[in-house]
Amino acid sequence: MAFKIVSWNCHGLQTHKEDIKSIINKYQPICLGLQETYLKPHLSAKFKNYVTHRSDFQQGSRASGGVACLTSCQIPSKPILLNTQLQAVALQIQLNSRITNLAREGFPTFLAKSYFCTHPTRPGKDKQDPNNYRPIALTSCLSKLLERMVSARLMHVLERSKWFVPSQSGFRRRRGTIDNLLKLETAIREAFVRKKHLVSIFFDIEKAYDRTWRHGILKDLSDIGLKGNLPLFIKNFLKTRIFQIRIGNILSDNFHQQEGVRQGNVLSVLLFIIKINGIVSKLPAYVNGTLFVDDIKIHCAGDDMGFIQRQLQTAVNDMGIKKWFYFLATKNSLYAFL
């Protein structure tokens, strides 16, 4: 299958079937956009290994302005270059159709499967210790493209409804680590001006993605008010997860991921942010916190170190109530600004 998208001003589909077949046989495109074409509802056009999409915005019976789209049943997993606006429209029609089908019918194996290659985290580490290896996930390019589209739509809904807590800066538009650093610097300067102490704790969650509660994500999506194909797509995305471990040219048996969100997927980051969103929203009054995806920082300022200790301990206990994650003791750190 050639990774091509072809557009043609054919001025009608029914009278050019043989020409269209010749184009398909010659170029074997992934997508064929037929400009100035209107396919009436009572008409049908079938081409082997291709699906016909008629434009849903054409109200009249004239071909002028209409677009029909033929998409291949065999989707490649390599990048596609779009040269014209019509090609972009044709590809958008195709991908929207794929997302709808995946929401209703579930993910096929080739999209739900990933391969993990292991690589040492740092030079000089003991290669006999499995904890010193970081897995790198290899997933389908088509799956990444579909996930990116869904992630963009979901992010738009969440930002428009102001669902994120203001302290979350991870992977949000016009937000970044600088925002969290500036908040901490401001708090430290204000504490020094008022001649107070400030203690800040940085947390790292152990196996954060692997322990994320799937049903909790779906519940949060329902609480947001999402209905239709989008939550169904995410449900099927979470349900079928298959992976293999690859070391050199050797592949392990298939494993099914029973819980958590799969690492290496574009959509997994946003789903994790949704689940962890409220973790710092119920901190004690004298404790402030910020988030950057799974990196958590809390701080407290005061005149008495005993008061600061009690407030931070209360905050840690409240965050630790969540049963689906644990703090990684070796990567947590505490800094005192006296």
From TrEMBL:
Keywords, alphabetical: Nucleotidyltransferase, RNA-directed DNA polymerase, Transferase
Matches recorded under InterPro entries: DNA/RNA_pol_sf, Endo/exonu/phosph_ase_sf, RT_dom
SUPFAM superfamilies named among the record's database cross-references: DNA/RNA polymerases, DNase I-like
Protein name: Putative RNA-directed DNA polymerase from transposon X-element
Lineage: superkingdom: Eukaryota
CDD domains hit by this protein: RT_nLTR_like (cd01650)
Protein source organism: Araneus ventricosus (Orbweaver spider)
Gene Ontology MF, one: RNA-directed DNA polymerase activity
Pfam short name (any one): RVT_1
